[in-house]
Amino acid sequence: MAEGPDPDHAAALILFGQFVGEWDFDWASYGAGGEQAMVGRGEWIFGWVIEGRAVQDVWIIPPRGHRKRAGQSEGEYGTTVRFYDPQRDLWLVTWCGPVNRARRTFVARRAGQAIVQDGETEQGQPMQWIFSEIAVNSFTWRSVSSNDGETWQLREEMHVRRKLG
Questions:
Q1: Given CB 3.0 to 4.6 Å as the disulfide criterion, which of 32, 52, 96, 145 pairs with 2?
Q2: Is the Cα dihedral 146, 151, 155, 161 positive or negative?
Q3: What is the longest distance spanned by two Cα atoms in the chain?
Q4: Is the four-CA dihedral 105, 77, 55, 13 of positive or negative sign?
């Protein structure tokens, strides 16, 4: 853990550093036809790591207090490490989800008022994880993918709120 961003690149590190803290979210996944397939609630915790050169998060659904209750699905939890590459002025991102044995890598950068992480699905199709509608105490996160590189389909969406107090 680190107290804050590395001072040599503090301005650039705030792109993901703005999320440091604890958050709650409402999550939904979508099927191939665009229909809502599943919903849930979770928590997302971000912190500075590696002498402030990276931001790491832990994403948990359902939240810790609701895991392993009778009738509750196992859900998912995972961790993401994002570090800034000053030579290329972009972020390198790795997400690991042990419950579903998943690992994804992305390249991230600011895109207007949003943050876009570009990667691939398990089948090698283009995928984006997008942070948008970013405010001090809320943001929206979406996962989209494309079969043809032009038309994007919503896979998941979260409406995220900072835990206050």
A1: 52
A2: positive
A3: 50
A4: positive
Three-state helix/strand/coil letters over the chain: CCCCCCHHHHHHHHHHHCCCEEEEEEEEEECCCCCEEEEEEEEEEEEEECCCCEEEEEEEECCHHHCCCCCCCCCEEEEEEEEEECCCCEEEEEEEECCCCEEEEEEEEEECCEEEEEEECCCCCEEEEEEEEEECCEEEEEEEEECCCCCEEEEEEEEEEECCC
The model's pLDDT over 95-146, given as tens digits with 9 standing for 90+, comes to 999 988 999 999 999 999 999 999 999 889 999 999 999 999 999 999 999 9
Q: pTM (2 decimals)?
A: 0.93
d(CA 165, CA 144): 33
For tokens 């509750």, the residue is 72
Q: How far is CA 13 from the centre of its chain?
A: 16
